[in-house]
Design a protein that fits this description.
By secondary structure, the protein is α/β, with parallel strands linked by helices. About 30% of the residues lie in helices and about 15% in strands. The termini are far apart.
């Protein structure tokens, strides 16, 4: 496999696209965002590969509640700061949340919570690099590339207590 490959899969939160090069997953995103993201993959071919099939299998296990940690090679393309944020996302445990301010502290830039939010929004490997676990300091869900309803669904799937209104996390 010389050039990247990608495939579309159905999921409980809508269709997803997964892309991989020979060594690693390089993208995982929502169908609604795919037209804008697709050009960044260059000459990628729509075709499966063993790595894409393994990613699909692990995603199905995640959505079935049988997987809490993904075991896939990942390759992030972005600025050094973005890569630092995306790698920090990988340390957020299943079923937990973290504020943008807390994530900024975690990456050693405590005042850069807005920049962390921007990096989070540009995350090329959604779900696996769990940007859905990052919320506002006041407990509100804040934005999400897949949409707030998808973010809410993913957090509920992980057992996070979402408040009645669905826009704030319940205390405790």
């Amino acid at each position: 496999m010389d050039r990247p490959r990608y495939q579309r899969i159905a999921s409980p939160v809508g269709d997803l696209y997964i892309a991989a090069n020979r060594e690693a997953i390089i993208a995982l995103g929502y169908a609604r965002n795919w037209p804008a993201f697709r050009p960044t993959l260059g000459d990628a071919a729509e075709a499966s590969s063993p790595l894409l099939r393994e990613c699909e299998k692990q995603l199905r296990e995640y959505f079935d509640g049988d997987r809490k940690v993904f075991e896939l090679p990942l390759s992030f393309t972005g600025t050094p700061f973005q890569r630092k944020v995306w790698n920090a996302l990988l340390t957020l445990p299943w079923g937990s949340t973290c504020s943008y301010a807390e994530l900024a502290k975690k990456v050693g830039s405590p005042r850069a919570w807005r920049a962390v939010g921007s990096a989070n929004g540009a995350n090329p490997i959604s779900i696996i690099a769990p940007c859905h676990r990052v919320i506002a300091s006041d407990g509100s869900l804040a934005g999400y590339g897949g949409g707030q309803s998808v973010k809410r669904t993913l957090l509920r799937l992980e057992g996070v207590d979402i408040g009645q209104a669905g826009s704030r996390l319940s205390p405790g």
